[in-house]
Fold these 2 entries.
Entry 1:
Amino acid sequence: MSVNKEVKRITTNTIQKLKSAGEKISMITAYDYSFAKIFDESGIEIILVGDSASNVMAGHETTLPITLDQMIYHAASVVRGCKRCLVVVDLPFGSYQGNSKEALNSAIRIMKETGGHAIKLEGGEEVLDSIKRIVGAGVPVMGHLGLTPQSIYKFGTYTVRAKEEWEAEKLKKDALALQEAGCFAIVLEKIPASLAGEVSKSLNIPTIGIGAGGACDGQVLVMHDMLGINVEFKPRFLRQYLNLHSQITEAVKNYISDIKSLDFPNEGEQY
Ligand code: KIV
């Protein structure tokens, strides 16, 4: 029997046990109550309320504009839909980079106002103090290395990270430092599969990959990408499980047509 099936509420301990048992961890993003409920009931282990909400929910080009208040709104909605899975909430850009006190205050707001179970933040050695302070206050922290979208203007591109030796070395060092600082897991985004494999092996805590190959301890995808809602985004790492864009378009076209042709509502669909 899998570790997941033995537990009522997934906790950071469960996530650690999954790694120890060699069972892969499943994570998906969600931003609202209804989708979170479906994902929770489907058996997913972790729901990430990602700051990708800035892109897929609000239509911004980057993740930078979303605010802490907006993340709290999304996260509280997601938490209301979940009975079982672990809900991790992104600290948005500008809510933790200032100093560790600011980071702790933002994490506390997330925990108090959303009912989420953990926070995620991006970066390596430059955020270690913040991670230690947040973990010290009893809040589980998920790290995020590799492609870190909140730093997009520093890098200027969304291409694969850590292909160069120096960047790979820095990532390996950062991963160990995040583990040392108390992170319970680390997202590895868009880095070579061999590097992700090496990092995953070197850590006791699990890695969750996105565009980082099959050797990570778990995988995460943005729901709009894997469900085919956002069809313009087609990176190589993405597996699209549905084409909701075309299914929804067809359904709405049928609805319009039924209204225009006086087919809807029919006698059975009125009082
Ligand atoms: O915001 C997000 O959705 C994320 C995932 C891509 C890991 O950080």
Entry 2:
Amino acid sequence: MSRMAGDRPRVLSGIQPTADSFHLGNYIGAVRQWVALQETHDAFYCVVDLHALTNGEWDPAELRQRSRVAAAQLLAAGVDPHRCTLFVQSHVPEHTQLSWVLTCLTGMGEASRMTQYKDRVARYGAERIGVGMFTYPILQAADILIYRADQVPVGEDQRQHIELTRDLAQRFNHRFGDVLVVPEPYILKATGKILDLQDPTAKMSKSSESQAGVVDLLDEPAAITKKVKRAVTDTDTAVRYDPETKPGVSNLLTIFSVLTDRPVAELEAAYDGMGYGALKTDLAEAVVGFTSPLRERTLGWLDDSGRLDDVLAAGAAHARKVAAETLTHVYDAVGFIQPRE
Ligand code: TYM
């Protein structure tokens, strides 16, 4: 089923409130695109608190606080509730309702092939992982399909989950009629995978054992400067973009380019022959110049949590209207008796 002709294409994305701060990878890989897309798309963005339970261990007070900190950071980064629908996932119960239907259409095999799940099993052993970790990509599919989103702006690590979402939407439509929209991933090649500053073979990740190579948006300036200056590069000295042979330097150039709006080629030319020290010093300054005001704005939103909660309530009210409509069609299509008004 398509939405009315003439509508702007719709995007949906989510971010987990599982850390005290987002990191630069979250911002550059995803949130920055969210901000841009709200100008041209009908945008839905959510703090996925249901997903935050999947590791099986959470502290209720901490989760509540992190969910607000997550929303505050999104607002501070430029997600604008006048231009998009910003909400918290648990405020819209239709996500979990659709998730159950999709769960019953998902094969054990295809769920078992999700690399994030396989990585967890490899790391902790299957016995120590909850069922929620296993079914999590199905809930993610429901997040997307309940809004009939056309595109999903995410980092490269989410590509496989979007593929599963597409498969489930196609399977559903094939069996029950054209109810769901099959979404496309929206992943920018240049910025879809920001690397850990200490280990430029791995993505920057909140779950890395060492956080020395993870730059948090809410880090103090001194901590950020230290992390950037200690970034692992290589034994060469040439400031050159070459992700294959020089992943560390290339990653720094990518971050620098995004934060300063200067093309990578221009940066290569500017730092030609100057070595990595100068590049790191200036990059540290650029990162701090970006994060400091963002941090201030985040704290401003957190100081006024009544206003923050109002924004989230308005977002949830709108999101629920859209989600409820899809769910009605889904429930009808799969054969549930429509409840009396
Ligand atoms: P999460 O919370 O781990 O990450 C949020 C977003 O940040 C991106 N990202 C990165 N991008 C580039 N480089 C990196 N190093 C990097 N690290 C993280 C992620 O790709 C993501 O876009 N399952 C999702 C949350 C989710 C979701 C959804 C996303 C739940 N429902 C529906 C889209 C649509 C997750 O855990 O993202």
